[in-house]
## 1
Amino acid sequence: MKNETRYQIVISGVGGQGILFITRLLAEAAIEKGLPVFTSETHGMAQRGGTVISHLKVGEFASPLINPGQADGLIALKAESLTQHGGYLKPGGWAAVNSSAPLEMQAPSRPFYLDADRLTREMDDPRSLNLIMLGFTLSSVQRGDFDHGVLHCSLGDVETVLENRLKGKGHLLQSSLRALKAGADSAAAA
Amino acid sequence: MKQAVRKELMMGNEAIARGLIENSCSVATAYPGTPASEILSSVAKTSKQLDMNMHIQWAINEKVAFEIAYAGSMAGLRTAVSMKQVGLNVASDPLMSAAYMGTAGGFVIISADDPGPHSSQTEQDSRMMAMMAKIPVLDPDSPRQAKDMVGMAYTLSETFKIPVMLRPTTRVCHSRQDVLPGDIFPSATKPDFKKDPSRWAATPKFRYQLHLELEEKLAQIAVHKATEPILRNPEANGRRAVVSSGVAAAYTAESLKNLQLWNRLPFYQVLQPFPLHTAFIRLLLEAYDKILILEETTGMMEIQLADRNRIKGRLSGVVPRAGELLPEKIEALLASFAGVEAQIPSLTQAPGRRPTLCAGCPHRASFFAIKKAAPRGIYTSDIGCYTLGLNLKAVDTVLCMGAAISQAAGFYHAYKREEKRPDIVATIGDSTFFHAGVPALIDAVNQNVHFVLVILDNRTTAMTGSQPTPATGKSATGEALVKVDMEALVKGCGVAFLEVGDPYDTKGFISMVKAAVAFSRSKGPAVVIARHPCIIDLARQGKTADPVEVMVTEECDGCGFCHQHFECPALVEVDDGQRTVVDPLVCNGCGVCLDICPNGAIVEK
């Protein structure tokens, strides 16, 4: 288990935001690269607007859950997710947060903020928030000056996964890629 | 190293489904319930893709599902039934009896547990049901192992002619892992029911013989090689050992490595927690001074190790008796068991969001009408999305599937000799009504219970992901089935008052429920069917109606009525509750809120 690729990412928000979908895109990007992957999802009643959390582990792991204090990164689709699930981050971990203003952090970490609610309204597509945040995350962590342990895939990898998944659904694919790009561009602008 | 077949990202439930198909299962039945629902839908999907010749069905309830699959096994075929743990309670009657009678073709019962609980009424341990029924149970730690265990279960079932339980938990069902699909062997078996009344229709005299037979089978299964516990770290030696099964074993493996205890604490992973292998029990008690047992959700392996001094687990109080065994809890237990210091961070509990009915959900409109029509009523309810009516104070009780109706009857009988009797309004979903509501309704008619039953008919089994109901007229694989007529069924139960209305028609629907309440006070049971399709289901089919665009005017004085009695996530309080606005990102455009504001401040744009 030494010197192997190992990434642990928490994705959280509320039911209905499309957390399972972006978790799945990241997991399939890992499989494309031949990496072992494990995810854990929230189903059932919580999906009706309650707190929803996904765990994503890339590399050799035996179990689907991440221990508190061990996550490399957190994607928070609601500002409150950072308060609720910031405890999963390891010291120095990154967090991509949907918030109009910087927030106080529980653990020492590297936060990136985007007002994705505003951007979603501007794009007039309520269902694009998850992909905006994913694009923003992928672009932010690529720009971040990290040594290692950032993410297992790039924006381009996720675009490829989307193209494979939404083959034959031209309109949906275009709007998805547009949302991903809008998020990525806001990271560039920040 | 290139694999000939590509690994796939499989959810635990999909991996189990794949296991069923790879192992020539011919009949698969289920009733949906979190965390088990995706097992049957995945069997249906894969079987359709591969054009398999299988019978796959959603049954009306778990008991019926069990009996259909069991009869298939009696006819010599490999069959399976899947459900959530509380569903197994409904199917417990055939389970106990089938254990005695045994099987012909392989028969696997998949019962998914929900430690936490995340989406269930209880944290009950299905393995205890297997123990009570005296059948073997397998406990997978991951999607990959869950798929492998399906094959193991069929072999076990056919070798010993016994039903076998596969017991995944939420963290196995709803995790995804890269899994290598295996080869598929279509079933070549033809149905061939061999009549044997002393077995298949055994009277009590024969049942005694069958019980002796069952005990003999269990004794043999407890020495069966293929399901023996595995020593995961043969390099470790010491006088303390750890025993674990299911996803707790996966956490144990990772935690032992995190704590650098992998070479110190011998770690046994149990595949078959019941019956625990006889040689393994002997080995543990001979070789170790202290044994820590990590398992979900009860100490059922612990019970089988008859040494109260050396065994540390849930019964001894070392492991918490309730709640999910999260990896950080397991790591702390292992550190303390090994006597090592470790800094193990845990999550500080921050308040989360409570679930709520979707914006535009027709149930919200129904609950609003019920509270208008019977403001001081007793509201019994049931299992489904509409349990969330409790946020609106329109749900007072939730017991189990179908209980809304029988509990309404119970309240009526409790109050009927009183001078002032409360109105009683029961709510139940369409799928739940079919599942366990019908017998209770017949009973209420027979006893002339004065109550109103509102059947929240959203034309689907919504909470578990839109599975068809008997009224949908569609099979699990999408073929047309005979539609069951709900109105005819209600009338057939003997109900004299029956109305069908659309809860989106707020005013009309309130008058309809009022009429039902009036009838129930003077005459007897009244039924209202609140019919409006689930908006999630409509969106999935691309049939979303044109939205009604709404806004809040200056007339809003921040009284909070809409939040307390309607609680739509699209109506948002701003300025410290002084005002309410509509969140256009969340609003579904149902237009029901136009009729609810006491100041008339919600208007069409």
## 2
Amino acid sequence: MKKTVIDVQNMSFSFGSLSVLEDVTFSIKEREMIGVIGPNGGGKTTLLRLMLGLLKPDKGSITVLGNSPKNSSHRIGYVPQQRLFDPLFPVSVLDVVMMGRVGKSWGGPFSKNDRELAAQALRDVDLYHQHQTAFADLSGGQRQRTLIARALASSAELLFFDEPTANVDSFAEQNIYNLLSKLNEKLTIIVVSHDVGFVSKYVGSVVCVNRLVHIHPTSEIDGKNIQDIYGADLAMVRHDHRCSEKGHTWVNF
Amino acid sequence: MGQFLRDLQTYSFLQYALIAGLLTSISCGIIGSYVTVRRITYIAGAIAHCTLGGMGAARFLQKEYAFPVTPLQGAVTAALLAACIIAMVKHHSSQREDTVLSAIWSIGMAVGIFFISRTGGYNEDLMSYLFGDILMVSQRDLLLIGILDLIIVGVVLLFYNKLISVCFDEEFARISGIRVELFDLLLLLMIALTVVLLVQVVGIVMVVAMLTLPAAGAGLLVKRLWHMMVTAILLCLVCTTGGLAISYQLDFPAGATIIIMAGMVYFLVIALKKWGKA
């Protein structure tokens, strides 16, 4: 029996009078890979921030790893969008990854254990050879992998990704997806993405967020519920980078 | 340059000035790097200008009522108070941050000018507050500068990792359990102390230049925060020592000469960088 790692019960949240999420109930079990999809402004990021304890629900409850989100957040590895960073900030790749260890002590220099965990995290994302490179000099995909290593270095039990493939070329994108699948063997992963193609291919279930929240196994995603989520007619286009010469054949998502 | 070196051996005021420049460079390089990478020059400017209020009030109490406070102590109080207000507004208020900073900036100055106008005697002190007077630094001031330096270096050595995390990615820092508000306040308090040191050397009006130009120049040369700090300290040393020597030799105002040196060093670094690439 798999343990429940995230449990959301009848949770509602609004910014002032603007209702963002209404009566949300779902739960996530350990070692699941969950995609969070939905239109812009639908509340994906808000849901993520609620689960990280950065926002408080107005009604209902959120339990993360058996505790309140705020008290559990240090056990979550958060991987933000890499384009949010100041390109002039003077840090090396290793400096960034070491930041995953900073919350673990009161201050002072890093311990040998901290350094080993950071080095291991960099090896896991295959970036150890670049550890002395300036973060600013990396490509988009390499920056994303550095931020993943930072989350891994914190010995997180849960990983949250916010649009991991934004500003990343398609080769690096493939790389990141493969990395996520590998990490999923040990960790629970939640990925916010607008990329339905990614969701269909890699994740087990999707949480669809557009004020209301539904959770389905990926196999159930079809044109009908995509339309429900996005609230408009949408053409379904496969986000599959390996196109055959004969063109696409439709498959069931 | 000969005159400066000869007089340096004779006059204690010149020795004090030189030591003040050296000591200030240490905190200036370290804290200037934080101010620059965090892009909070405007905060430093507001704190610097509101120290006039503290200095004016302290001098008024000292002269008119023989209170045992010095303008320097007044400046420390005003700067620390401003840092606390800014930290509170940033994290617990819905007011626009830059509005509050402008208020601190100008109200502080107004209070200072008010008290100075109510204080008897000559008002030439006002000029030295605004534009600095490194040649007037006393032995007692040096002791205070030294203590403030020790505090800043000690805090940064202890909490370097926390501070860089908070500066680089506040949200991640908060999620990983770092008390972001606390470290933000700590950084602002250290900025306040550094500002007070710099007011002695280059004056209220030019503090911001000393906090940004050497650090920004250093940032162009190196790629890690602590390397930037060390390089910025060296550039500050060049500016304060060189500026002091030149201003003494040619009878220029010391604060302004130091700032012009800092500006030249910054543009020289940019030029070298461009030239190096071409």
